[in-house]
Amino acid sequence: MPRTCTLFILALLAGCAATDSDRDPTRDTPRETPDAASPPAEADDQAQAMPGWPKGMPAFDPDNPHTWPLPMLWYETPIPDYDSPGNGYLMSDITLNGRRFVGMATFLGNGPGLEHVFQGTDFEDADGATTFTLYSLVPDDAEVVTPGAAVSRNHPTYTFAGRIATAERRQDFVTIIHHDRPDIAMVNLKLFDLDDVRVILVIPHDDDTVRYLQYPISLLEMGDIADPEAFNSMIAPKLDTPELRALLAEPGVIAP
Question: Could you tell me the pTM of the whole model?
Answer without folding.
Answer: 0.75
